[in-house]
Amino acid sequence: MGTPFWEEFADLALARVRAAGAEYGDIRIQHSITEHIRGEDRRIASNRNLEDSGFGVRVLYHGAWGFAASSILSLEEVPRIADLAVEIAKGSASIATEKVRLAEEPVHHDRIVTPVRIDPSAVPLERKTGLLLEAMEALHERPGIVRSSAEVWWRRDRKRFESTEGSVLDFDLLAVNGAIGATALSDGRFATRCFNTPHLRKGYELIEEADLLREAPRVADEAMEKVKAPAVDAGLYDLVLDPEHLSLTMHESCGHPSELDRALGYEANYAGTSFLTPDKHGTFQFGSPHVTLVADNTEPETLAATGYDDDGVACQRWDIVRDGIFVGYCTNREVAPKIGEKRSRGSNRADGWGSVPIVRIANIGLEPGTQTLDQLIADVKRGIYIEGHGSYSIDQRRCNFQFGGDAFWLIENGRRTHMLRDVIYHGITPEFWNSCDGVADRSFRRRYGFITCGKGQPGQSGWMTHAASPARFQRVQVIRGEGGS
Amino acid sequence: MTVATAKSWPKMTSREEFRFLADLILARSSGDETTVMLHDLHSGATRFANNHVIQNVDTRRGALAVTVAFGKRHGTASATDFTAGSVLETLARAERIARVSPEDPEYVSPPDPQPFAVWGTARPETVAAGPARRLEYVNEAVGLCRMENLMAAGVVSSSVSSVGVASGNGLFGYETRADARFSITVHAGDATGWNAAAHRSIDHLRIQERTLTAIDRAKRSRDPRELPAGHYPVLLEPAAVAGLWTWLVRALDAKSYEKGTSPFAGRLGKRIVNKRLALNNSPDHPDLLGVGFTTEGLPSGPSTWIDRGVLKQLAYDRFGAKAHGIKVIPMLDAPVLSLDGAASGTVQDLVKQADHAILVSNFWYIRSVNPIDLTLTGMTRDGTFLVERGEIVSAVKNFRFHESPLRAFQDINAATAPMEAVTSETGKMLVPAMALPKFHFSSVTQF
Questions:
Q1: Quick one: B175 and B302 in the same domain?
Q2: Which of A16, A95, A426 to mutate to test the interface with B (most CBs of B within 10 A)?
Q3: Which of A166, B229, B269, B387 is the most exposed place for a label (fewest CB within 10 A)?
Q4: Domain limits for position B175
Q5: CA B68, CA B371: separation in Å to the nearest integer?
Q6: What is the DSSP-derived secondary structure letter of residue B103?
Q7: Percentages helix, strand, coil for chain A, rounded to the nearest 5?
């Protein structure tokens, strides 16, 4: 696996790091290919194939970090970058008053490959562009659709990780996604409805199974219904949230607060901190007893199930919230010891060879309950069923949030009736999760992935998957998304 | 202190090297039209939190992209490996994509060759800055906080990039760009204060002044009072104004306008904000991060978008501009918002004039709520205060807002001259601090 000389380059870099007296060092050499075909308004607007290769060397010297990276993989550049990483770490050490101590991790030798049935790079480009054009035509068949979009995306990462501790890990990972969207115009008002396959670690079979052509008429019809729907009346509603919608709610209001680096202040200047401070660990009533949120970086096909993270720590499954109580953080080897944990949870990830790994949200999912979706809706007198992602915003400690959605249906007396528009709900995170009074069973469980989770300075994009069955929340404040008065 | 020496610096792709690579590709391309784009970046950042360095990074990433067109069929490939073999393989990939791509009715040939203005985008002091300079600035900022027994988190970064564009029709542009950035969040217990800067010159980051302002905001943010949600008069500092106007600028897309899916639909040539407001692009301004040309090879230049509150210009892509027979003007890269007749005072002067208002240092996590009327939501962050009778009387718990800049900037009580503004969610702008009579805060958070 990899390309010729990766092993030799890694050995060369780590030999220099060791010789410089560093207590720890690692190197990631990576070659990534991304294909992104994007359709817009019945045309293929962009058809791109991007290759990105390079390496990064991370050094811990006298308890302080240095990192250097380059896209030039050569006999001259590898030692230069290794030496520069050491030099930078020495600079960091010169003003450090506290030393980094890494949690122990066994040495690993492994090779991780995404199981793929259909290699997306082997699928003829004409087939992919043809599918997107056909999907957009199908969207425009419905009168009133004025704009359309369709896309297919995949990325393959081949990577080698080696550390001075002796771990050697080779990766060949793939992720795929497809999406369509339609915008309807009526009486000077417009509305967009979308359909996304989840981002998953699968082959092109994900696109074929999703069947964009089958979904297109429904998406167009719902865009039309949405643009003509009555605006919501502000007030308290019971909400029934679908798995795709919940993936974002979980991500923002549970995922980010459970990142230990945030809780310790590392992200205070950008992404923010967390209301889930270490003093709440193990005791805080995050949600109702219906709420159990599990981090699982071992579930096949999910984005964070990469075998090992960028600390070389094996992927794991652990509880974040158990029966409503906050019990676990996402950690790396640096921050885990700060709360007395002996081993990292394996959530340290960089978004490429040129970035330093930081703590990332794991594949956090809501554990299924016992009801069916119909049963969840049947108990609602006045409520709203919400699908998909819309507007979202949350404060820097992850307390006050506000979410929209992609589609909304009014629930009256236990029945889903007609669509609504301009639905926005807001609340305070623990109050919201404590209002959860039911989760549908495992047969309704769906997974949705994120590849644009922004964090870090310089900014990086994190990847993870969130799974859920539909869940119900009582008496949530809903407002009309028009602002102003 | 250990200093990373000059021998550690990588040599950036020069104008001559880019011309060589471009000529190599253009000579071998079988496409009807071929464009080569260079982005060679050397960047570094020293990040700190809890008064310690937590990240110290240096990255060199060169990227070369090739777009090939056969008639109206086009494709793009890119690579980070600049060896001749890789460059030609990248060309071959772009050719393969273009050959099998469907015809794009909106494909437009590369721009004609033209001279590009030189705006002084690469200040030598920034180009020469490295880890040692960044560490020195971090030490200065953290030292000031330690003296006050406060904790700080932030980042000092600098970068230099070689950017180029070349086409088979003779179009050629090359530019070296450099910028430096600093931002800091100071913790005074549970209270926080923030400040940020970005400039072509690392000498202009004004670390001490910015840090002292963040310290002052953090100290004033202690013991916040909870006020109910509702409509309030506000004093928006430049960063807060920039956050709202960034979304207004993004909405200036002409294609959405033509399709009827723009908040400005039918309002070109009409007043959309206060009649004293003007929005211009000024890439030659020394305090902005203007560039000589865009990625596709269009010249950047001064332009007027809003004049006396009237929407004058939309951002057309080249196809849209051609279809409408108008000159294409790229989206703003160096925005300047100004209020005619505004005093050249400070934020403090606005505070002194205010009888009752909420002073907002910055907004965070701004997102669109309703694209039809450009209603946005977001939170106040790291410095929100109650002003009574010309004085800051207390901090207040952070608000969520629900407001459209198209409504909020209809009435303006007072404003300063344009000042530098940059946030983690906006590019660099020059905007005034403003006093607005009415702004909608829809809820309150717990701190």
A1: no
A2: A95
A3: B269
A4: 10-216
A5: 35
A6: P
A7: 25, 40, 35
Domain boundary among B158, B187, B216: B216
Whether B437 and B355 map to the same domain: the answer is yes
Whether residue A257 contacts residue A271, with contact meaning beta carbons closer than 8 Å, is answered with no
Please give the biggest Cα pair distance in chain B.
Answer: 72
A480 pLDDT higher than 60 = yes
- When pLDDT is averaged across residues B117-132 and rounded to a whole number, the result is 94
A150 closest CA partner among A306, A37, A19: A37
With contacts defined as CB-CB under 8 Å, which chain B residues touch A94? 1-2, 135
Same domain, yes or no: B173 and B302: no
pTM: 0.96
Task: State the Cα–Cα distance between residues B244 and B425, nearest whole angstrom.
Answer: 10
pLDDT of residue A292: 98
Query: What pLDDT score was predicted for residue B344?
Result: 75
Q: Residue with structure tokens 């906080």?
A: B145
CA of B417 to nearest chain A CA: how many angstroms apart?
A: 27
Residues 6+ apart with CB under 8 A from B124: none
Tell me the shortest Cα–Cα distance from B350 to chain A, in angstroms.
24
Angle (nearest 5°) at CA B380 between B377 and B382: 150
Question: What is the distance between the alpha carbons of residues B41 and A51, in angstroms, rounded to a whole number?
Answer: 16
Q: Are B29 and B68 in contact (CB under 8 A)?
A: yes
In a domain, A27, yes or no: yes
Strand partners, A137: none
Among B196, B216, B236, the domain-final residue is B216
Largest CA-CA distance found in chain A, in angstroms, rounded: 73
Q: Do A395 and B135 touch (CB under 8 A)?
A: no
Asked if the model's pLDDT at residue B241 lies above 80, the reply is yes
**Token digits for B276?**
């004293």
| B42 lies in some domain | yes
What percentage of chain B exceeds 70 in pLDDT?
Answer: 98
Q: Is B347 strand, coil or helix?
A: helix
Q: What is the pLDDT of residues B187-207, one digit of tens each?
A: 999 999 999 999 999 999 999
ipTM rounded to 2 decimals: 0.95
β-strands A293-296, A392-394: how paired?
unpaired
Place of tokens 């294909």: A35
The count of domains in chain A is 2
**Structure confidence by residue, pLDDT tens digits, A296-343:** 999 999 999 999 999 999 999 999 999 999 999 999 999 999 999 999
**A396/B365 CB distance under 8 A:** yes
Amino acid (one-letter) located at A421 = R
In this structure, are A248 and A122 located in the same domain? Answer: no
Same domain, B138 and B26: yes
* CA angle, residues B372, B376, B380, in degrees to nearest 5: 175
Residues of B in contact with A188 (CB under 8 A): 260, 265
Task: Tell me the shortest Cα–Cα distance from B183 to chain A, in angstroms.
Answer: 7
- Could you read off the pLDDT of A98-138 as tens digits, one per residue? 999 999 999 999 999 999 999 999 999 999 999 999 999 99
Residue A112, strand partner residues = A171
Mark whether B176 and B319 lie in a shared domain. no
Domain range enclosing A459: 235-480
- In-domain check, residue B3: no
